[in-house]
Amino acid sequence: MTTHFITAEIDLQETPNQLHQAIEAELQKRGEPLRWAITRVDTQQQKAHIEAIVTNTPSQ
């Protein structure tokens, strides 16, 4: 198992619940999220910037 620090940019959603689901879906593409945080919100571009730690299991 390896851990990776990643950043992602997510479009802001209409509700906090939709934003949470969009973040989780994006992070799942890159591994299993251990923790993540919204570190910046750009209201002009309607983007949330995310920093996360994810784990990956090497393929055998």
Essential attributes:
60 residues; alpha+beta
Question: Could you characterize the architecture of this molecule?
Answer:
The chain is an alpha+beta fold and 60 residues long. The protein has one domain (2-56). The protein contains one helix and three strands; from the N terminus they run E-H-E-E. It has one helix at residues 16-28, and strands spanning 2-11, 32-42, 47-56. Strands 1-3-2 form a three-stranded antiparallel beta sheet. The longest helix is centred in the middle third of the chain and has 13 residues, at 16-28.
Tell me the fraction of residues in β-strands, as a range: over 45%
Average pLDDT over all residues: 93
Share of helix among residues?
Answer: 10-25%
What is the H-and-E element order? EHEE
| Largest β-sheet summary | 3 strands, antiparallel
Structural class: alpha+beta
CA radius of gyration is 12 Å
Number of helices: 1
The low-confidence parts are: none
Per DSSP E runs of 2 or more residues, the count of β-strands stands at 3
Distance between the termini: 12 Å
Q: What overall geometry do the principal axes of the alpha carbons give?
A: elongated
**Count of domains:** 1
Q: State the strand order across the main sheet.
A: 1-3-2
